[in-house]
Design goal:
It contains seven helices and six strands, in the order βααβαβαβααββα. By secondary structure, it is α/β, with parallel strands linked by helices. It has one domain: 3-Layer(aba) Sandwich (Undecaprenyl pyrophosphate synthetase). A six-stranded parallel β-sheet has the order 3-4-2-1-5-6, sandwiched between helices. The longest helix is centred in the middle third of the chain and has 24 residues. It starts with 5 loop residues before the first strand and ends in a 9-residue tail after the last helix.
């Protein structure tokens, strides 16, 4: 078994990690962003072509408003300050989810990041932002119906937010919880799933490599014997 083509990660545990250390949940999100940078860099090193990161779910609006606003500002500031670095590292950025509900200034920053990185080809990174998989599937079905197309796997897939990305090979969830949380439900049909006890800020390249090593040993039958 070769290395995976597409890895998806539910980056859980930022807030709990920070509270355990007597820090604010926002501090945990800041450290979580540093963990993202490390894993993206390592993915490039390992020649993984696609990476999808669960950044903010459609259910996360239930969190305190101050925390939600901090998360959005953290993401916006990152792209404003680091866009040249992202371009230089060959990272193609794509945001999936319902962008229309996001703050206008964040949408503008996202659009700039997507446009400026669209020709990059070392790795494609999808940030799932205001994303919910059930709604994604419903949206795709509506488009298929509006276009009066046949309901087929191909037609549904090409109208998902993740159109252009292959199905997920590996799904990782940090933080000790064992659930999918409405993330890529269609795309992970045959993914190998790894639940990790470590909180996201503590997840490192060695942890990632251990998962990749396990993946190499798995025989993926896709329904065959």
């Amino acid at each position: 078994m070769s290395l995976p083509n597409h890895v998806a990660i539910i980056m859980d545990g930022n807030g709990r990690w920070a509270l355990q250390r007597g820090k604010s949940r926002n501090y945990g999100h800041q450290c979580g962003l540093k963990a993202i940078e490390k894993i993206v860099d390592y993915s490039i090193k390992k020649k993984i072509s696609y990476l999808t990161l669960f950044t903010f779910s459609s259910e996360n609006w239930k969190r305190p408003k101050k925390e939600v606003n901090f998360l959005f500002k953290l993401l916006e500031n990152y792209f404003r300050k680091n866009i040249l670095k992202v371009i230089r590292n060959g990272i193609k950025v794509k945001i999936i989810g319902n962008k229309f509900s996001l703050p206008s200034h964040l949408r503008k920053t996202i659009k700039i990041a997507e446009n400026k990185t669209r020709k990059n080809n070392k790795i494609s990174v999808q940030l799932a932002l205001n994303y919910g998989s059930k709604q994604e599937i419903i949206n795709s079905m509506k488009i298929v119906n509006k276009k009066k197309q046949k309901i087929t796997l191909k037609n549904i897939e090409k109208n998902l937010f993740t159109s252009g990305f292959p199905d997920t090979d590996i799904l990782i969830r940090t933080g000790g919880q064992k659930r999918l949380s409405n993330f890529l439900l269609w795309q992970i049909a045959y993914a190998e799933i790894f639940f990790i006890k470590k909180m996201w800020p503590d997840f490192n390249n060695n942890d990632f490599q251990k998962i990749l090593n396990k993946f190499k040993k798995i025989k993926r039958n896709f329904g065959k014997v």
